[in-house]
Write a structure and sequence with these properties.
Chain lengths: ~110, ~110
C-alpha cells in the first residue's frame, strides 16, 4: 500500500481557514485520496475523497496537486468542533482496504 | 448514526481466554472492517470483509480470526487473548466501492 506523510500536529484559530497537508509521493494512478477525522472518544468519520480533481463538500475542500503527489484538506472556517485527528488515506482502485496512518492532530484555539 | 452496533462496548477478560466481538449492521452494506486503536499507533486494520464468507487480512491480523456468515454480522475472535490485545476495537461498514465508510462507537477490551 502506498504511504502518506502528515504532520503530527497543527494548530489554528477559530473562524480561520485551516490547510492540512498530506504527502503521498508513491501514489499510483488508481489510488484514491480519502480523508477521515476522529473526534475525541469517537469513531472516525468520513470527510471527503477524490482522485484527480479538486473536490468540495459541505464539510471541507480537497485540493490535489497536479502531479498527485500531495493533497491538502481545507477547512474554510475552523470551529472548536473541528478539533480532531485528521487522517489522509490512499485507497487503491480495485481494493476496498482502508489503511490509516497516524494522522494530524488539529487543535483549534478559541 | 449509521446502523452499526458493536457489542460488547466494554469487556475485561483474562489472558488465555477466547473473546468474540460482534459488529452488527442494519444497512445491508457489503464491506465490513475491524480495526484496533492504540496510543501512538493510530488505527490499524485487522481484517476486512467484502461479502458474506469473503474476508481478507489487514496489517495486524496475527492472533485474530473473523467470520461473516451473514451480511449483517462480522465477528472478530481472539482465540486466546493476550495483554498486547488490550485496545479499542472499531468496526466499520461501507456500501459500495469508493464511498464513505461509517464507524461504530468502539469496544474497549482489557486483557488482564
Amino acid at each position: 500500500d502506498a504511504k502518506t506523510t502528515q504532520p503530527n500536529s497543527m494548530e489554528s484559530n477559530e473562524e480561520e481557514p485551516v490547510h492540512l497537508p498530506c504527502n503521498h509521493s508513491t501514489i499510483s494512478g488508481t489510488d484514491y485520496i480519502h480523508w477521515y477525522r476522529q473526534l475525541p472518544s469517537q469513531g472516525p468519520e468520513y470527510v471527503i475523497h477524490g482522485l484527480t480533481s479538486n473536490v468540495n463538500n459541505r464539510m471541507a475542500s480537497l485540493a490535489i496537486a497536479e502531479d498527485r503527489k500531495s493533497s491538502t484538506l481545507i477547512l474554510h472556517r475552523a470551529t472548536l468542533r473541528d478539533a480532531a485527528v485528521y487522517y489522509c488515506i490512499l485507497k487503491r482502485g480495485g481494493s476496498e482496504k482502508l489503511v490509516f496512518g497516524k494522522g494530524t492532530k488539529l487543535t483549534v484555539n478559541p | 448514526d449509521a446502523g452499526i452496533t458493536q457489542s460488547p462496548r466494554h469487556k475485561v477478560t483474562e489472558t488465555g481466554t477466547p473473546v468474540t466481538l460482534r459488529c452488527h449492521q442494519t444497512e445491508n452494506h457489503r464491506y465490513m472492517y475491524w480495526y484496533r486503536q492504540d496510543p501512538g499507533h493510530g488505527l490499524r486494520l485487522i481484517h476486512y470483509s467484502y461479502g458474506v464468507k469473503d474476508t481478507d487480512k489487514g496489517e495486524v491480523s496475527d492472533g485474530y480470526s473473523v467470520s461473516r456468515s451473514k451480511t449483517e454480522d462480522f465477528l472478530l475472535t481472539l482465540e486466546s487473548a493476550t495483554s498486547s490485545q488490550t485496545s479499542v476495537y472499531f468496526c466499520a461498514i461501507k456500501d459500495r466501492p469508493n464511498t464513505e465508510a461509517f464507524f461504530g462507537q468502539g469496544t474497549r477490551l482489557t486483557v488482564v
